[in-house]
Structure formats: structure tokens, C-alpha cells
Amino acid sequence: MKDRVLIVGAGPVGSITALALLQAGIPVTIFEALAETPTAHRAATTHSSTLDALESVGIADEVVKQGLVARYFQYRHRETNEIFAEFDFDRLKDETHHPYAVQLEQHKTVGIALDRNAAFADFGLHRGHRAVEMSQDDSGVVLVTETPDGTRHDWRGRYLIGCDGGRSFARKASGIDFPGFTWEEKFMIVATLFDFEAADHFRYRNYIADAQRWSSVFKIPGPDSKGMWRTLFPIMADETEQDVTSDQWIHDRFAEILPYAKDTKIVHRNLYNVHQRVAASFRAGRVFLAGDAAHVNNPLGGMGMNSGIQDGLTLAAKIVKVWRGEGDDALFDLYDRQRRPLAEKYVQAQSIQNKQTLQNTDKAAAMKRFDELRQIAEDPKRHKPFLMNASLINMARESAAIG
Ligand SMILES: Cc1cc2nc3c(=O)[nH]c(=O)nc-3n(C[C@H](O)[C@H](O)[C@H](O)COP(=O)(O)OP(=O)(O)OC[C@H]3O[C@@H](n4cnc5c(N)ncnc54)[C@H](O)[C@@H]3O)c2cc1C
Fold this sequence. Notes:
The protein is of the alpha+beta class. 37% of the residues lie in helices and 25% in strands. The chain has a domain at 5-70 and 104-180 and 277-358: FAD/NAD(P)-binding domain (3-Layer(bba) Sandwich), CATH 3.50.50.60. It has helices spanning 12-23, 48-55, 60-66, 106-117, 169-173, 196-200, 241-244, 247-257, 304-323, 330-359, 363-378, 380-390, 393-401, and strands at 5-8, 28-32, 45-46, 68-70, 72-77, 83-88, 101-103, 123-127, 130-136, 141-146, 152-157, 159-162, 180-182, 187-192, 205-209, 215-220, 228-234, 266-272, 275-278, 283-284, 287-289, 295-296. The strands form five sheets. It has a seven-stranded mixed sheet, sandwiched between helices. Helix 2 (48-55) crosses helix 3 and helix 11 packs across helix 12 (380-390). It is globular and about 65 Å long. The structure holds flavin-adenine dinucleotide.
């Protein structure tokens, strides 16, 4: 059991990082607290830079096949319903094999990766195992997991990767700080079968700007792959959880923000806290952090899972080299240098700016930003560079260039 990589967390980052390691011949065991992958609405957008990276582990085609190809995204002004900017990922066709985003629920991406992992004899997935203790020495890491009946189990591996989400046990047990902040308002996600595209020229990815009642509207395949629409609403400070999860509150939001949506049947609702944080280090000796364990951000722009998968694949490449004797420990510091500063520069900066664009309370500044986005969308010289950031292609390239 010793000579393997231990991964805590079977989310998108843990399951895909495991796949890259297994394909290189490295044994992997994942420990997952939950009995099943949750289907709650979280990531849906997979960007072109991530699809290109998923090609390296052979699952990009399956993600595209199961998902919805989203070539465009648009911005609207809530008061006027004017579409003030629309972007076309096809402008990236010389830069990526996937000049579009793909809308696919993250639990389906996890399912694709775990199915592939299961084909490897050296893969283990222990569900119902919550990581509770961890220590390391010069030769490896010892992990203790606990099953629901209270039994504790000891495991040993050469390295451990914490892919265990925003509240990461691996991060806390390594004593790594998680500086940043939590937004005052929560986000409410509501899924409906109402067809926004047919009703009012919506694309598969849409942002609606308003100082108070901004929103986003996204299409996802849904459980039967026939299509479902996911809307996001901010919750005001004086609104209680009981208020905002009521049918009445949700129907009021539809009436106010998305009046073209009539008779919306609510098929799912979920309330989220939203944070902007980056771990002080992505490495503590033989323990590494990737994905939400390393950084969290608001979902506007769809960058958390994307940058997390790219962390995991970057780290896996380093572990493979060291495992084969083609590199040394310095590669692990390089992982931190390649991913941590760029999580701040791209993911944090862009997701915060995306939120400010949608909810600017200074009307003059808001109109200026809308005008700027309109000009960027209309100017071929600026349209493509904007998408190079939005698709995280610039981040992936800058990361790869750091030596
Ligand atoms: C509403 C919403 C919409 C989003 N939309 C997008 C989007 O469109 N695009 C995008 O890129 N990102 C998006 N995100 C962010 C995205 O969901 C996360 O970045 C992504 O889930 C991170 O993946 P992960 O594998 O790092 O962590 P997680 O998905 O959180 O998985 C962590 C796993 O670790 C397990 N775990 C935790 N602690 C332990 C423990 N002690 N022992 C064992 N197992 C443990 C958990 O059960 C879980 O299965 C969105 C988030 C939200 C909330």
C-alpha cells in the first residue's frame, strides 16, 4: 500500500488528477467522505483551456459529447433588457482545439473520470472514508480515515494530494493559511425547465447586470440530457434562508429579473456561501493542494473547477517526473510557483471583476463598464484577447512558461 499517491476527495480535481497519475503507471488511492458524488448544482462550464488539458488524459471528447457546446456568451442590462455585449469563442479557433465552452454538470465529468480510473488495477476508491488525521516523514505520508461506524483506518503513501474542497482537511492539517474574504451576500441557484433561448434570444451562457438584482442564466444538459436552465440570484442581507428558498421568493425574482420567464417550474434550488481565498502555499512537504482546497472564488466566469483541474494536471506531471527519477523535489516548488500566483492574477481578479461588472451600484461607472464591454465585443482586436483571459488560455500558457 505504501508506494502510491493518496488523494483526499473524489470531486472533479481528485478524480482527474488520479487519472493522469494512473495513466503514467503510478498507483493511486482516493478517499472520499461521501457515499456518492453529489448532484447539487455546481460547476457546469468547462472552458477551452481545460478541454485541451482533458485531451491529454483522453476524456475531452466524452465531455464534449455529453455536454452542450456553448459558442457564445452575452451580457444584458436588466432595466432595458438590452444585450450590450456578446462574445464568440469561435474567434479562438487558431488558439485551441475547442473554440467554445462546454456546459456539463460537474458530477457527470467526475463520473467520466472515475469510470476511466476503475479500469486500472492500481486504482482504489474508498467511499465513506473521511480523512481525519495526517502526518509525514522523509519517506511518505500516513493518513487516517474514519468510516461512518467510527472505525479508523491507517494508510500510507509516498505523496498526498488534498483535493478535498474549500474546507480542506489536508490544508488545515498542514497548517496552511487560507487568506481572503467571504462575500456578505449568499447566492441562490434555481434550476427550471423554462426555455430562455426560445423565449428571448438567450445563449447557453448569459449575464444580467443590475446594481441590486443581477443574475446569470445558463443552460445545462440536465438529468435526462434534454436541457435545463440554471439561474443565479444574489440574496440581500435582510433576506432569511427561509424567505429565499420559498417558491414565492423565487417567482418574485423571475418576475422582476427575468420577466420573459412565465410559468417557471422550479426543479432545483440551492443556497451557497461565496468566498475569495487562495492558500498561502500549495505545498507542505509531501502534501499538495489542488482545486478548491487551494483556492476558492465566486462562480461568475466559471473558473473554480477549470483552474482546479489545471492545477491537478500540472501537479500530476511533476509527480510523474519525480517518480521516474527525471526530476527532483524542486519540481514541487515549481508547481506552487506555476499555480498559486496565477490563481490570484487570473481567477481571483477576473471573478471579482465579473461580479463588480454585474452589480455596480454607481450608475455612471456601470454604464461606462457596459460601454467598454460593448466596444471590446465589437472590436476584433480586443474581442479575442478578452476571450483569451475568459477561457483561461492565457493563464494556462503563462503557467506553463514559468520555469
Ligand atoms: C453554484 C456554483 C457554480 C459553479 N460553477 C462553476 C463553473 O461553471 N465552472 C467552474 O470552473 N467552476 C464552477 N464552480 C466551482 C466548482 O464547483 C469548484 O471549483 C469545484 O467543485 C472544485 O472541485 P474540487 O474537486 O477541488 O472540490 P469539490 O468538488 O468540492 O470536491 C471535494 C471532494 O472532497 C470530499 N471531501 C472533503 N473533505 C473530505 C475529507 N476530510 N475526507 C474525504 N473526503 C473529503 C468532498 O466530499 C468532495 O467530494 C461553481 C461553484 C458553485 C458553488
